[in-house]
Predict the structure.
Amino acid sequence: MIPGLSRSKVLRTWGGVMDMSMDGSPIIDKTPVPNLYLNTGWNYGGFKATPASGFTFAHLIAKNEPHAVTREMRLDRFERGYHIDEGGKGPQPNLH
């Protein structure tokens, strides 16, 4: 359909923003914008964690407070300098 792109290797190319957090852990939190919540930055474990993510995210939205499991996964942890350090990860992108 687009002859100019006929030889491009689409399956081997990535052109976009990586949805990874700097410490390798997700962000599940409300934002300063009213009624806007985040559930992002899952890096490589998002698919396996989807049930727990959905449960804790629903808790956050329903009660407007974080679930005990995701209390440390706040958006402002980067501003505060508190990174979640999980084995094999850390606050350096080259470790992911």
Notes: The mean pLDDT is 79. The two ends are 37 Å apart (CA to CA). The longest strand covers residues 27-30.
